[in-house]
Amino acid sequence: MALRTPIARLPKPSASSLKHTPLTPLWHPPVHSRSMATVVPPVTQDLTSRSGPTAMVFMNMGGPSSLPEVGPFLSRLFADADLIPLGRLQPYLGPMISRRRTPKIQNQYAAIGGGSPIRKWSEYQSHEMCKLLDVRCPESAPHKPYVAFRYADPLTEEMYQRLLDDGFGKRGRAVAFTQYPQYSCSTTGSSLNELWRWRTRLEGKEPEGGGVKWSVIDRWPVHPGLIEAFARNIEEQLATYPAEVRRDVVLLFSAHSLPMSVVNRGDTYPAEVSATVWAVMQRLGFSNPYRLCWQSQVGPSAWLGAQTQDTVMSYVKKGHKDLVLIPIAFTSDHIETLYELDQEVIHEAQKEGGTGVKRAESLNGSKVFIEALADVAAKHMSSGETCSRQMGIRCQGCKSERCLEQKRFFMNTQRDVEEVIR
């Protein structure tokens, strides 16, 4: 996020759905308000089809939809030790940082229209995906879209209560679909920890009636449809350069950075982001020089680099005036793209002479991307698996009991699954 601040300076604590006809993907055979929902009869797996209805739950970080929501959003974000580990001082430093940062971050959201568009895009993408799934997977239809944000409305607890109000507590099927294509304990892991926590609070350890039947799509970094969607957006931006310089344009893939403490613990995120970049470049035929860089460092501690802004300025000063930034770990626009990349990084580069520095369009309403979402979900539901094999193994340096219990829960929802690897 565009939330950089030197923590060392802080005072020390005292003690409208759009309709479209689904396209035939090139990469795969053809496939065909906060108000709470009213209570409906209990969902059963044979109510409308052999195994439907199915709740499709999009999980993401979220973002404030209006300026008054910025403070609560930052408060939740800096309280999350999975995302921003501040050690034993987290209960003191978290609220202090969020209060200090709120005015500046409100100004940033004001500069991109008064709020984050991530809820709009998440709701649109999930609704359109469910339309495709109803056609492709009639056995699990109807597919009902839900959105669960970690730090903004609709929060995980609100989504879970809606599921129960909609009748899914009587062994209704729900798929937790992370919208972080590359897994990290600080993003998808944090969202799953929160989902498990609210499942325990609202349903108990042994829910009456069986409870919601969960499965998880926990990562999909090299899905062909995801790669195709990224590649097409890059090609569209490359086409705006003169033909004689097009092959020399440097492609800079930018992903949200992580504290090195998380990386050194064994988090798989850097490797999975790199896999996405490699797959995109392979699809492009390695047509251009490229690099992977990392954005949104928060505080003075060591973070994964090289940083995006430093990388862009370095290349511009070395004479590389034509660069395309590609937000490779985000599935829609939000403050990291619309403000940090567009209004900070690119603006500063252009002031230094980088007149050819541009950004590829985010995935947003891409039909190719939405078809990819449907394909990922359809294959998951037909696989009979509750999560990926990677979900069962913890990071080498993980000591979190919360993580262990969450993994046990999601893996044990499948019969005869192997015990979580310690």
Characterize the structure shown.
The chain is α/β, with parallel strands linked by helices. The protein is about 40% helix and about 15% strand. The chain contains 12 helices and 8 strands. The protein has helices at about 70-80, 90-110, 120-135, 155-165, 190-205, 225-240, 260-265, 270-285, 310-315, 335-350, 365-385, 400-410, and strands spanning about 55-60, 145-150, 170-180, 210-215, 250-255, 290-295, 320-325, 355-360. The strands form 2 sheets. It has a 4-stranded parallel sheet with strand order 2-1-3-4, with helices on both faces. Strands 6-5-7-8 form a 4-stranded parallel sheet, with helices on both faces. α3 (about 120-135) crosses α11. It is globular and about 65 Å long.
How would you sum up this structure in a few lines?
With 422 residues, the chain is an alpha/beta fold. The protein is built from twelve helices and eight strands.
Helix % is 25-40%
Q: What global shape is seen?
A: globular
* C-alpha termini separation: 32 Å
Q: Stretches where pLDDT falls below 50 for ≥5 residues?
A: 3-49, 415-422
Strand order of the largest sheet: 2-1-3-4
Q: Strand-residue fraction?
A: 5-15%
Main beta sheet strand tally, sense and closure: 4 strands, parallel
Q: If you compute it from the alpha carbons, what radius of gyration comes out, rounded to the nearest whole angstrom? A: 22 Å
Broad structural category:
alpha/beta
Number of strands: 8
Instruction: Report the mean per-residue pLDDT as an integer.
Output: 86
The helix/strand order is: EHHHEHEHEHEHHEHEHEHH
Number of helical runs? 12
